[in-house]
């Protein structure tokens, strides 16, 4: 899987050098030295490959060129012409994912139609005195199906990715800079938590009982996270941070901030009335203190990233993966300040030992992708979700809510694109990076979260075109599914061994998701909802 065959025809004593196109600023490395007139090698088909051929005196025979090999394809490269020819065609491994997406969309559409017909038939049966819910009367005091659905979609994506994502590269985390489907899942969870938190605070207020529950939930999430990710019993190498641990810390930090700045909805609406002349800025002025605090978090992240001393071998402000990057100059500098802080606080032996940069950049140091410094910027995703809840609470008409959400999405996207250099040829000052949870990553993933939630809100809660099935079931038991899908990830009938080919793995991993959807459905039918 993800390999092809390349036969290089040349002369004895020639050398073939290659590197993956995904390895930014890496030197080419020797793959084989010709002892005969031709050599056959396996090539990776995940990303494009950069190739170069040298003669015995290290003079260039074939200039550096980039070529994207296809899976199971056979290719021939001639040193005389430096051309790469296709000997036998590759297999198109993208077709299975297209069919899978089409099938999921059709199934979801059919469930939506059945649900819509069912609701309409109930309305007709009850008679003319029965009225369907007016979309303009929807208030967030009622449970938002769109939020449960978004949470359900997110946990299903997470299960699919954690089981292997069919072996496709875009369902794996980026080697370092960049953004894949797998990278946006965690930010979605944080965003959803922020939206839920806003409604909870408005409903229950900031009381001693609420604070006690927050502390209990934080501790439980952190402990469950440590239990789930640690398979060994050695305290010396036990990993401390992880997904649930970061969620717990972000949850606690945002609650503390909102506890200081909280105003009840009656007060916010009164302030909004006073700010009618600046209605575009109303939701900002109501919680301006929150914006200032989270701006300070962002500035604190920037300060540590760019000005914390990293030692004699690593320059200040280094954001790279180390290893082969920049021709191996900063081999042990993976993550810069983020790693230095985690190493000091957690210790190298308690950090993640298989970072996403390992396969491409061959970085050899441990690195914690859910580390301390990135938790600061991860709170921005939660805060954005909290801000979305305020938009839904403050503004009365759904049209105003939707337009405000899209406005926030646009502002965040272009802010992230500015830092990332999305619209420039060169890399920006702060590239999108999930491992570092960079500012650009936080902004752009928050923008994506808002757009998806806004669409679901209009389709499900406003227009009643879809009831969220089957994802609404998984969304109501997200924490339980997260824990059990990890515990049973290699257990029959959830998963089993198959031949390592994309269609086989895709079918298996989709079955794994389907299994937990079925479990969630039966829990829903029995009204069993597990939460902290």
TrEMBL record:
Keywords of the record: Membrane, Transmembrane, Transmembrane helix
Coiled-coil ranges from the UniProt annotation: none
TM region(s), chain numbering: 97-117, 150-170, 185-202, 214-231, 243-261, 282-308, 372-395, 402-419, 439-459, 471-488, 508-524
Protein name: Uncharacterized protein
Source species: Steinernema carpocapsae (Entomopathogenic nematode)
């Amino acid at each position: 899987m993800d390999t092809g065959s390349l036969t290089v025809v040349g002369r004895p004593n020639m050398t073939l050098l290659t590197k993956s196109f995904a390895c930014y600023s890496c030197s080419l490395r020797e793959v084989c030295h010709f002892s005969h007139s031709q050599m056959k090698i396996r090539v990776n088909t995940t990303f494009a490959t950069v190739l170069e051929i040298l003669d015995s005196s290290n003079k260039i025979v074939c200039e550096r060129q980039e070529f994207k090999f296809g899976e199971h394809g056979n290719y021939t490269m001639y040193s005389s012409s430096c051309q790469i020819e296709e000997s036998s065609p590759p297999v198109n491994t993208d077709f299975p994912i297209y069919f899978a997406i089409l099938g999921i969309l059709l199934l979801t559409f059919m469930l939506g139609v059945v649900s819509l017909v069912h609701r309409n038939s109930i309305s007709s049966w009850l008679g003319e005195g029965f009225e369907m819910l007016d979309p303009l009367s929807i208030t967030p005091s009622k449970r938002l199906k769109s939020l449960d659905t978004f949470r359900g979609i997110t946990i299903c994506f997470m299960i699919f990715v954690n089981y292997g994502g069919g072996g496709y590269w875009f369902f794996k985390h980026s080697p370092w800079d960049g953004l894949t489907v797998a990278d946006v899942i965690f930010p979605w969870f944080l965003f959803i938590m922020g939206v839920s938190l806003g409604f909870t605070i408005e409903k229950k207020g900031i009381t001693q009982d609420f604070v006690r529950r927050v502390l209990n939930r934080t501790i439980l999430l952190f402990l469950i996270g440590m239990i789930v990710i640690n398979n060994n019993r050695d305290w010396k190498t036990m990993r401390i941070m992880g997904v649930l641990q970061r969620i717990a810390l972000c949850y606690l930090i945002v609650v503390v901030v909102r506890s200081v700045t909280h105003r009840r909805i009656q007060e916010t609406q009164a302030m909004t009335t006073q700010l009618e002349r600046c209605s575009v800025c109303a939701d900002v002025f109501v919680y301006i203190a929150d914006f200032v605090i989270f701006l300070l978090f962002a500035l604190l992240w920037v300060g540590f990233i760019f000005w914390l001393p990293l030692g004699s071998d690593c320059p200040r402000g280094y954001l790279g993966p180390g290893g082969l990057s920049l021709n191996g100059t900063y081999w042990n500098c993976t993550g810069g300040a983020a790693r230095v802080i985690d190493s000091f606080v957690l210790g190298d032996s308690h950090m993640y030992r298989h970072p996403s940069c390992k396969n491409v950049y061959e970085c050899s140091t441990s690195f914690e992708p859910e580390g301390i410094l990135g938790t600061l910027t991860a709170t921005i995703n939660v805060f954005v979700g909290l801000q979305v809840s305020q938009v839904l609470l403050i503004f009365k008409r759904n049209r105003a809510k939707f337009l405000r959400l899209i406005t926030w999405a646009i502002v965040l996207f272009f802010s992230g694109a500015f830092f990332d250099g999305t619209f420039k040829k060169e890399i920006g000052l702060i590239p999108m990076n999930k491992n570092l949870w960079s500012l650009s990553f936080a902004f752009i993933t928050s923008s994506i979260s808002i757009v998806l939630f806004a669409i679901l809100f209009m389709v499900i809660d406003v227009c009643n075109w879809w009831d969220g099935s089957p994802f609404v079931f998984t969304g109501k038991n997200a924490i339980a599914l997260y824990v059990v899908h990890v515990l049973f990830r290699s257990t029959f009938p959830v998963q089993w061994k198959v031949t390592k080919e994309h269609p086989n793995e895709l079918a298996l991993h989709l079955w794994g998701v389907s299994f937990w959807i079925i479990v969630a459905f039966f829990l829903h039918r029995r009204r069993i909802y597990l939460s902290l």
